[in-house]
Amino acid sequence: MSKTLIRGAKVLGGAPQDVLIDGQTIAEVGTGLSAEGAEVVEAGGKVLLPGLVDLHTHLREPGREDSETVLTGTRAAASGGYTAVFAMANTFPVADTAGVVEQVYRLGQQHGYCDVQPIGAVTIGLEGRKLAELGAMHESAAGVTVFSDDGKCVDDAVIMRRALEYVKAFGGVVAQHAQEPRLTEGAQMNEGVVSAELGLGGWPAVAEESIIARDVLLAEHVGSRVHICHLSTAGSVEIVRWAKSRGIQVTAEVTPHHLLLTDELVRSYDPVYKVNPPLRTERDVLALREALADGTIDIVATDHAPHPHEDKDCEWAAAAMGMVGLETALSVVQETMVETGLLDWAQVAERMSTKPAEIGRATGHGRPVSAGEPANLTLVDTAYRGAVDPAGFASRSRNTPYEGRELPGRVTHTWLRGKATLVDGKLT
Amino acid sequence: MQRHLISAADLTRDDAVLILDTAEEMARVADRPIKKLPTLRGRTIVNLFFEDSTRTRISFEAAEKRLSADVINFSAKGSSVSKGESLKDTAQTLEAMGVDAVVIRHGASGAPYRLATSGWIDAAVINAGDGTHQHPTQALLDAFTMRRRLIGRDAGLGQDLAGKRITLVGDVLHSRVARSNVDLLHTLGAEVTLVAPPTLVPVGVEQWPCEVSYDLDSTLPKSDAVMMLRVQRERMNAAFFPTEREYSRRYGLDGERMARMPEHAIVMHPGPMVRGMEITAEVADSDRCTVVEQVANGVSIRMAVLYLLLGGNEPAVSHARTAEEK
């Protein structure tokens, strides 16, 4: 088997060390390791992290291959430093059967850029009425453990309760897209000062917070774990903090864009800023950063949502919701959390690799950078600073809100079980 | 003046006063036997209407024709738009035909802004109403009507509306007229009060440069002009208010309420009125109600806007005299 020596990397941001990969595993971590028989990567002070894990990705295949495929999406993931992504179920057909989740899983294995762990739909067709065959999806080759109707909220309290209870039998978790549907009919952006002025339908914070409050209480009542997708408001943070203090098994994610952008950007009416849940206020952004720092919010997840150009090159109301995120996530986290002193790199690794792998039970991912562990690794040039150029994206879609914005950090190398998927910023 | 007219908030006080003064000049044209100026001869304007609005469309059309522009009316109904063509493609198609200005009415808030700023087309863009966002020419014609009635046709020239107390009543939440009026009236120095049931006032209104009241009766005696906004009956199905009857009782303007207004105060309505809902026939047909004047003033205002955006630097009136001499 081939050997690779990563020389002089700051492992989790610590003192420079050498890391020797032998085959699929990390053979040794130390200083002055022998390069004999190994290909050498001079890290030169770059930061080495465990391969990133994204609990919330839209790969669009099957059904919307014009916006993304498993191949293009996993290439984007490798470019962004990810070694595992969880693919959301809102495809066409919906991933609500063992057949669809196995197809997506196999495509990921076949392409080999990044492990693809399908998420199964909670209800048939994401319609919120009848439970999908959760057990069958778990027992399939895809081994589904995370279930979500993401894009839609499981708003029926009884269905949500049953789903939470049912998946306990096999250690599953329900990831809730918290959006009270009646409160968000016709919603186009965050409801507040800016929506009042722009005349765009409001998406009030309470529509998210009321569902989270209900679901943490349901999880407590039935003794299940629940995961909250893309938490976006200061009020949601307070509810999750309270739930954790009561010992409720709740985990939560925040997207990079909710850590950086606010609804002031919507004044441009440029649908590149249209996303669900919507961009919120500065106060929410600061509360989310603080919550990610203190652990109330467990992880960063991208909600990578590719859309073809024509779905964004139009008037606001007609545009699709969502932003691509896999290739900019780490840079945004560096900008908002590391350079502000809120997190160090070890904590970033925990929130972007270790914990998402734990929540989704992605075995072999999110492991320590130490001898004997699978060689899923990401090397980051944290000193880099440059403008985001969507033309260079591996994703099939370009709907990034960061075009032209200067951000720090650049992933230069990614290894999936010892195999380089990204070398010097180029996909292999 | 800017190249486009997208929002009343984009106008400075001087811009707005210039438009009102120019509209007075344009109004004189309407008093002549031949109501036509050669100012925009050879210029092409398209009225791009994605929403039905006969009165706004014909008002723009009359203004364009009085300025001798070539006019193309485009209604989205029955066109390629209904077959899924995008706003961008529609606009680019029209521009390829050599259009100098686009007057756009669209159901989506921000559509005119997108058209003006996305690099899709080069033509000037005039917002004729977008979603629940803005309707700047409506606000201008309202201000014009107020200035004439409250200050005077000649005395008003060069003046703003400083100190005038204007009350807007009704469905503020869904109203582009309310948003435009609040912006423009504030710029012109007026004091604005919005009156509506709390359900029909947007969250975030506290940042607007106006007062908000839920009580019509206490506001009326302190108003120089009361503008009634249309309230769609369907709103009661979404629980914005219980019944039409209760709405009328609490927020409708009838003769008795009108009597509480100061003697000089006027009643306005952007139309179309829902008689019996927000306004009784007695009020709508009274001398204090300016609805018909507002329509006439709309043509003058739209002529002024088109002239200032497209007409170049020559003064309108000398053009007019030349035209007459010929």
TrEMBL record, chain A:
Its EC number is 3.5.2.3. It is an enzyme of class 3 (hydrolase). Keywords: Hydrolase, Metal-binding, Pyrimidine biosynthesis, Zinc. SUPFAM superfamilies: Composite domain of metallo-dependent hydrolases, Metallo-dependent hydrolases. GO terms for cellular component: cytoplasm. InterPro entries: DHOase, DHOase/Allantoinase_Hydrolase, DHOase_cat, Dihydroorotase_CS, Metal-dep_hydrolase_composite, Metal_Hydrolase. Residues 45-233 form the Dihydroorotase catalytic domain. Its cofactor is Zn(2+). Zn(2+) 2 binds at residues 150, 177, 230. It comes from the Bacteria. GO terms for molecular function: allantoinase activity; dihydroorotase activity; zinc ion binding. Binds 2 Zn(2+) ions per subunit. The keyword tRNA-binding does not apply. It catalyses: (S)-dihydroorotate + H2O = N-carbamoyl-L-aspartate + H(+). Substrate binds at residues 58-60, 90, 276, 307. The active site is at 303. Zn(2+) 1 binds at residues 56, 58, 150, 303. Pathway: Pyrimidine metabolism; UMP biosynthesis via de novo pathway; (S)-dihydroorotate from bicarbonate: step 3/3. One of its GO terms (biological process) is purine nucleobase catabolic process. Pfam families: DHOase. PANTHER family: ALLANTOINASE (PTHR43668:SF2). Catalyzes the reversible cyclization of carbamoyl aspartate to dihydroorotate. Belongs to the metallo-dependent hydrolases superfamily. DHOase family. Class I DHOase subfamily. This is Dihydroorotase.
UniProtKB/TrEMBL annotation, chain B:
Belongs to the aspartate/ornithine carbamoyltransferase superfamily. ATCase family. It is an enzyme of class 2 (transferase). Residues 3-147 form the Aspartate/ornithine carbamoyltransferase carbamoyl-P binding domain. One of its GO terms (molecular function) is amino acid binding. Carbamoyl phosphate binds at residues 55-56, 105, 135, 138, 271-272. Catalyzes the condensation of carbamoyl phosphate and aspartate to form carbamoyl aspartate and inorganic phosphate, the committed step in the de novo pyrimidine nucleotide biosynthesis pathway. The keyword Coiled coil does not apply. L-aspartate binds at residues 83, 176, 230. Signal peptide: none annotated. It catalyses: carbamoyl phosphate + L-aspartate = N-carbamoyl-L-aspartate + phosphate + H(+). Pathway: Pyrimidine metabolism; UMP biosynthesis via de novo pathway; (S)-dihydroorotate from bicarbonate: step 2/3. Its EC number is 2.1.3.2. The gene is pyrB. Heterododecamer (2C3:3R2) of six catalytic PyrB chains organized as two trimers (C3), and six regulatory PyrI chains organized as three dimers (R2). InterPro entries: Asp/Orn_carbamoyltranf_P-bd, Asp/Orn_carbamoylTrfase, Asp/Orn_carbamoylTrfase_sf, Asp_carbamoyltransf, Asp_carbamoyltransf_Asp/Orn-bd. NCBIfam families: asp_carb_tr (TIGR00670), PRK00856.1 (NF002032). Coiled coil: none annotated. It comes from Streptomyces longwoodensis. Keywords: Pyrimidine biosynthesis, Transferase. Residues 163-309 form the Aspartate/ornithine carbamoyltransferase Asp/Orn-binding domain. This is Aspartate carbamoyltransferase.
